[in-house]
Design brief:
Structural class: alpha/beta
Number of helices: 20
Shape: elongated
Number of strands: 5
Strand content: 5-15%
Length: 512
């Protein structure tokens, strides 16, 4: 499978029956492998009559990874196999010993379908009764029905009937529809339908949903009701059947839940516009700090700030923006936003700008309050989870054009939002190396300092830093002066660090 990624741009996993479950497992494994690759490789999994795979925790994990849209499960209206595992396994075992050989033999040779007649009608009816009762109890549990259950759906489900097909991706609606369709099944059809997927797939090509099947007097008044009625018809459920009312409610729930992520996204866009003034005030604050006579720059001005309304306002804005973006991440992880939300350029760019603008203030506050003395340095012990998530959004974005053009002037915001955390850590290394008695530890500290110095100079040379980095009294400029003094002192002890004196040498450590 890894070789495929070098020769293709997409892969489709598929399987029928238990093979569908194997396909889902393989797709999940492959998706987890792709997380370490910087590619936009497409993975799709399509199953036919597959049993359930995992519980609600697995379903939530798949949603949090934004993988739900990669899975499509095709279910025949009467097929009992996708519903099997909702029933207690101990009650199913005697029946599976009879029906699995039938399914296996019939898949290899259609003539073996006649073997079903050898299974007593009473056994078939009891088998259907056990599964149907379990599904009925589960679907009646509503939105909390996932609690304590061993199996729970994930991805999208296409329910195929002789009248058409419908697609659902809300787990509760999927379970309800699994129950309602099976409630119309006969014992023999629930077993035989597991072998009819070829026919259902063939029908998809010519079945076209159309309101022409309705009498003019029967057409609902609203387009919403027309859509529900068409979906009900495609489910092969007529208005006069007992399951018609629950099925209609199920479809309405699915439609409502399907619209919610898009509505939430639209509301977030409005909320984003409302917090833009908070961000603008921080941008203005940065300009005033960079132009200030104290020549400390944006980061150090906030770190060494005194008590004033302006500073309090900026600090409050910092907290409000953090709360907004934490709410965005929470909604995304609870599947309340569209599957591709984190790939939309509007939100990727907005989160990146927020990170570059505000994280330096978070770093300044971390070191100002002495948190590094209690927990350790920011990079490993203080960085908020949202920034790590935004890093991934930015890395996974689609880049158009030539991103490697050199800059003609310094960036408005330093392109490494953790630059100041690296400066603070490098200054700590400088302090420690002066008093370190162990030669090996001292050598490692020197190598780390040298690595940072090379990295920071590269950032400056490429103009990937803001002008506040080069301010006369900035923490970075203080590091440069301290580093220069330390190297000049080192001239008195050339035998110990020859590589540092001639500017060469190699390092086995990296801070990047």
């Amino acid at each position: 499978m890894r070789e495929i990624t070098s020769n293709s741009k997409s892969v489709v996993f598929t399987g029928h029956s238990v093979g569908g479950t194997v396909a889902s497992l393989s797709a999940l494994w492959f998706l987890s492998c792709l997380q370490s690759l910087p590619s936009s490789f497409s993975v799709i999994c399509v199953t036919f009559g597959s049993p359930m795979l995992g519980n609600e925790s697995l379903s939530k994990a798949i949603l949090q990874e934004r993988w739900g849209g990669n899975f499509l499960h095709v279910v025949a209206q009467h097929d009992i196999v996708p519903r099997l595992l909702f029933a207690p396994s101990d009650s199913l075992f005697p029946y599976l010993c009879s029906f699995f050989p039938f399914w296996h033999s019939s898949m290899s040779n259609p003539s073996f379908k006649q073997l079903l007649a050898q299974c007593p009608d009473e056994m078939q009816a009891q088998f259907l009764h056990i599964v149907l009762n379990s599904l009925e109890a589960l679907s009646a549990g509503g939105l909390n029905s996932g609690q304590g259950n061993l199996f729970w759906p994930f991805g999208s489900y296409i329910f195929c009937t002789s009248k058409g097909s419908i697609c659902l991706d809300n787990a509760v609606s999927v379970i309800k529809m699994l129950h309602l369709m099976l409630a119309k099944s006969s014992p023999s059809s629930s077993i035989e339908d597991h072998l009819n997927y070829e026919n259902y797939v063939g029908q998809v090509y010519w079945q076209i949903l159309s309101s022409k099947n309705f009498q003019e007097d029967d057409l609902p008044d609203s387009s919403y009701e027309v859509g529900i009625a068409l979906a009900l018809q495609s489910s092969d459920i007529t208005p006069c059947e007992a399951v018609s009312g629950p099925a209609k409610d199920c479809l309405k729930l699915a439609k409502q839940m399907g619209r919610t992520p898009s509505l939430n996204s639209a509301n977030l866009a409005i909320a984003l516009s409302k917090i833009t003034p908070l961000r603008a005030q921080i941008e203005w604050y940065k300009v005033t700090c960079d132009d200030s006579d104290d020549q400390m720059g944006y980061y150090d001005s906030f770190k060494r700030r005194g008590a004033s309304k302006k500073n309090s306002k900026i600090n409050m804005n910092r907290h409000k923006l953090a709360r907004f973006w934490d709410d965005v991440i929470s909604m995304l992880e609870h599947n309340q936003l569209p599957h591709d939300f984190h790939k939309r350029s509007k939100w990727v760019n907005a989160s990146q700008f927020y990170k570059l603008l505000v994280e330096p203030l978070d770093i300044a506050e971390y070191y100002r309050s002495g948190e590094h003395l209690k927990k350790g340095h920011y990079m490993e012990h203080g960085r908020e989870r949202r920034y790590k998530i935004f890093d991934k959004w930015w890395r996974d974005r689609k880049v158009e054009g030539n991103p490697g053009n050199s800059r003609s002037k310094f960036a408005s915001l330093t392109q490494d939002s953790c630059f100041w955390a690296r400066v603070e850590e490098a200054r700590d290394w400088l302090n420690r190396v002066r008093s370190e008695g162990d030669t090996r530890t001292q050598s490692l500290l020197w190598e780390n300092i040298e690595k940072f110095d090379q990295y920071a100079r590269g950032m400056v040379d490429r103009k990937e830093v803001s002008i506040d980095v080069l301010a006369k009294n900035s923490s970075y400029n203080l590091f440069v002066e301290e580093w220069k003094d330390l190297k000049s002192q080192l001239q008195l002890f050339p035998p110990h660090f020859p590589s540092l004196l001639d500017g060469g040498g190699s390092s086995s450590l990296t801070i990047l």
